[in-house]
Amino acid sequence: MAETKENIVMFPFMAQGHIIPFLALAFQLEKTNKYTITFVNTKKNINKLRSSLPPNSSFNLVEIPFDSSDHNLPPDTENTDSIPYNLVPILIEATLSFKPHFRKLVSGLVSEQNGQKKPLCIITGIFFGWCAEIAHELGVFHALFIAGGGFGFACYYSMWMNLPHKNTDSDEFLLPDFPEASRIHVTQLTDYLRVADGSDCFSVSMQKLLTLWRNVDGILVNTVEELDKIGLMYFRREICPQVWPIGPLLLSTGSKDRAGKQLGISSPVCKNWLDTKPCSSVLYVSFGSQNTIAPSQMMELALALEASGKDFIWVVRPPSGFDINSEFKANEWLPEGFEERIKLSRKGLVVHNWAPQVDILSHESVSAFLSHCGWNSVLESLSHGVPIMGWPMAAEQFYNVKLLEEEIGVCVEVARGKICEVKHEEVVAKIELVMNETEKGKEMKRKACEAKEIIKNAIKDEKNYKGSSTKAMDEFFNAAFTMRESTLG
Ligand code: UDP
């Protein structure tokens, strides 16, 4: 008789940047044929997921009740992609209302009799540490899954828990529970952290939610041990001894963006263009799925790309202050005649809205990536040995750049923040530093290639050799099975 599969409950926070890595993890586990996945979320997110899953998917999709109007949010707010940035803290706080529903849901799964085993584990998003209490009441193993990097999230955690910038008049400060190297500048604070003083609603809420990380059985991180030691050590020392770096977990978004919109260019067109370019000659520029730069910065960047004389692919979206989903107005936001000149000279591809990023980064013509350093972009770049020019704008991106620049050696920072005033001459100088055969440029390329090998090695799963990420995943399951056995007495 076929062995019953183990059930894994997954519950990410309602943001595309969180749901997508959870899906990558879910697909990886589903592929092993050993697990069924129960994916929990609010109705709208579940519906969206249902329409995007492959027809043969065996996921169990479960809705958890949520009415955003009960929480001073606009009606039908069920994902950060549908609200302005300043409402995100309210959405995070509102998720505490899931508690009774989640308890009921897991109790139901635990007591189900029809041949089902009780869930082997519950894996939740970073704001759902409170699920540990429910899991333990019901004798189920519980882990958090951090979709970002170890260093970035360790800084983020330390920053929220200690608010070190409040105790200094200086522009630079140390994170109290970090090694000396982790000096932070005030310009590396996110908008929320800059105004946090420990008594405002968001500080109170974040400190409450992050404190709950200490109750979990372990933490899965979408990173690679060898590249991210400082952050992982921090987690093991300060938060929870069981930390499993299982990355990179990447999910190709295919021909549509995260909101389901078509690509601004097809993969074959992109590939054909890249095929005409010499090896290691093209700069790829993209700021992820949500971030945009100021109109003045867009102009400077366009001038820099043209002045550098390098070939480039640039994914453009309306600049900050304009609706990101509105039509792109080249005549307003780019230098006069820019797009036509670039098209005629074949020096660049200006892609509106969304490009097939992974296909681009995997092409041998690509030399460097000018990126906001969102963690998926970082992993995708390093997986293909592409050095990075960092322009962090939000969240832990500032600390990702720090890791990439100071520890891994694959990045130079070009600019910082959404509201910065970088001049095109400075951008050109950085492009030349990275893409010309300078000592620094060659060193960055060498280190990026080393990172690529480290990543390749980490995910190896061979008869006589398992890489660090494969081993970490095995250890995670060992811990979950050990807990299961102990609860069976
Ligand atoms: N992405 C893409 N095409 C684009 C922009 C982004 O395919 O034009 C994908 C990219 O490959 C990555 C994700 O969107 O997987 C962006 O995630 P990341 O963590 O880098 O940044 P975020 O969008 O969450 O800020």
From TrEMBL:
Transmembrane segments: none annotated. GO terms for molecular function: UDP-glucosyltransferase activity. It is an enzyme of class 2 (transferase). Its EC number is 2.4.1.-. Residues 8-228 form the Glycosyltransferase N-terminal domain. Keywords: Glycosyltransferase, Transferase. Pfam families: Glyco_transf_N (PF26168), UDPGT (PF00201). Belongs to the UDP-glycosyltransferase family. PANTHER family: GLYCOSYLTRANSFERASE, OS04G0273600 PROTEIN. This is Glycosyltransferase.
